[in-house]
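Instructor's aside before we start: the two examples that follow are unrelated to each other. I chose them only because their records fit on one page, so don't look for a connection. First example below.
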Amino acid sequence: MNYLNLAFYKFTTLTEIPDLRERLKGLCVDLDLKGTILLSTEGINCCVAGTRDSVELLKAFFSQDSRFTALPLKESWSDHQPFTRMLVKVKKEIIPLGMPEIEPAKFTAPFVGPKTLRDWFDQKKEMVLLDTRNSYEIRLGTFDGAIDLGLKHFRNFPDKVRSLPDDLKNKTVVTFCTGGIRCEKASPVLMGLGFKDVYQLEGGILKYFEECGDAHYQGDCFVFDYRVAINSRLEETAAVHCCGCQTPVTAEEQ
């Protein structure tokens, strides 16, 4: 395993973004890192891969900037470079929702840690698991009993939530996604629509895999790179993209 995959995001107010973009792009090129970094006034979303030394130098760069303290880093290894180029893009949102009033840096739902969620499953706690990912991601795997909203794009989330039964508003709702970023916006939407007891899985599925393996989770987790999917051991699976419909296909379906 020669390539270390580093993923993280953080909602934090960013200014002087063009300068930050140029410094990051230059550093990543010099370190021969590949992947994508999104920058916005609302924060940063990063997913890159390279050698251990290169990744550590990038982490050191961020550690020197007070805006990037306590980054929720997620790491995994692969035997090949899962990205083909290095992109540093400036976007309106690091995760598009189209609701500027939702500002996770100022307000979001409380987190529930992976081990606590596993305990809730073991204890058969009454709760609703709400998958905030797109349906093509969910077909590779999800938590036991989780609700698939049928999303084609995260922007559809508010409308889909409005169609949920009203009795769910009084239940404990746990939102989850791949790494946590979508839930930071999804959870405030739920609370604004009257859901009273909302949590979000800290670190998403990837952090859950790291700490709890596949307990109460069926299948793999889709990732947005050439690995397509990883299993509960954070290893690349045999899943591929269908050339016709561009949806992920498991090894059994091939």
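Example two begins here.
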Amino acid sequence: SSASPRSNAGEYRRVAGHFVEAVDDTLRLLDRATSSTTRNPRAAILKFADAVDTLEVDSMAARARAEAMRARGQAYFATWQEHLAVVKDERVRQLALQHRAELDVRFPRLRAEAQHARETFRPFLADLKTLRDSLEGNPTAAHIAAEGARIAQTKAQGRQVQDALSVLMAELNATAALVTPPVKTTNRP
């Protein structure tokens, strides 16, 4: 059986949130590895290299999970009425009915933002790997200085990835809000 948009949105937000943290960590470690105040560039470069490797693996896992969730979401919408009939939480069922038209608009937008984030990420990862290889091959302050233009370009690409992921997270949050019932609050004296 396919998952609901609510569970897909929650899972996708967790995956995207983890990925945002991985990108942020990689950029932070790049800053540390290439800072002129770093006393031991070799150790900092090794940490950066490990972060690049982890980010690459995370990107493959995130892409695979996103593809699976997208397929489940498409299957869900193909059988919308059948799914609504078995939703146990009446509040979720009502929200889904109320927001169907908006969800029909949001999901393609969400896919487009995810695609944009992937397209922004690809050259960033390629440059990270090139930079990692270069810095590992010559972990000296002089070589770091010589790689200044590549470092600046990679950091700029990283900021573009962060921006794309920020927009994607905003879309995910807005979509999830459409299918998440409000929390009941109790009035206490």
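The chain has six helices and no strands.
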